[in-house]
Amino acid sequence: MLDENSPLSLYYQVKSIIIDNIKNKVWTMNSKIPAERELCEMYKVSRITVRQALKELEDEGYLYRKQGKGTFVTGQKFVQRLSQFYSFSEEIAKMGAIPSTKTISFDISEADPLIAEKLQIGSNEMVFAIKRLRLADNEPFGIETSYVVYKYAMELKEEDVNQFGLYNALKLKCGVIPNEATETFEAVNVGSEDAKYLNVSKNAAALHLNRITSANGNKIEYCVSTIRGDKYKYTIQLGSTFLK
């Protein structure tokens, strides 16, 4: 029940209860929550109070509306802090979800001019082209293609990547330890092919990532990823240097 003597406003108390219900899975992902009228009756508050709580929850990504159908719980959004080198699988696990990966293709081919330029190798040099679907709790959240310089990872096998993940496979099977990466990202709309893999509609909001990974000063991987905008977000940790 709400506490009218609390210093916290009634709308904020309603908002907190709804968040608790979502976190405790009383209302599960993509489920419809009670209508405004029902919430008013449940918490003995006005419709203005309920609407304010729902509006903030929608703005913060906890809820979404379907015209004429009601208000629904948004799926979990994973937050990646960009302060150090990271692995998708390890970060997803830290956030309490079960990571998994499905390999779509695993090929060896000559690097095209763009890939050769990114990896600073000759255009006739060979690379692994590894396309994978990334999932959290069995739900797709990203699709990525990694181009790995062949001469640094000749021992790499598809089964190794499936079992250990790419970076761990490079370390365990090839003695290559990725330790530095440069990543850029921008907002895009999902194309028709990626939409099928990601289980979203074409033109859905997404993040497009380009990453160049190095080991001991050598560029070893160029990775291109499309990440669902409703499932992932990035935060950047800044240092304490003062502006002058």
TrEMBL record:
* SUPFAM superfamilies referenced in this protein's UniProt entry, alphabetically: Chorismate lyase-like (SSF64288), Winged helix' DNA-binding domain (SSF46785)
Pfam families, from UniProt?
GntR (PF00392), UTRA (PF07702)
Q: Which residues form the HTH gntR-type domain?
A: 8-76
Which InterPro entries does the record match to this protein? Answer: Bact_HTH_transcr_reg (IPR050679), Chorismate_lyase_/UTRA_dom_sf (IPR028978), Tscrpt_reg_HTH_GntR (IPR000524), UTRA (IPR011663), WH-like_DNA-bd_sf (IPR036388), WH_DNA-bd_sf (IPR036390)
Q: Which UniProt keywords apply?
A: DNA-binding, Transcription, Transcription regulation
Where are the annotated coiled coils located?
Answer: none
Q: Does the keyword Transcription regulation apply?
A: yes
* Identification of the protein by name: GntR family transcriptional regulator
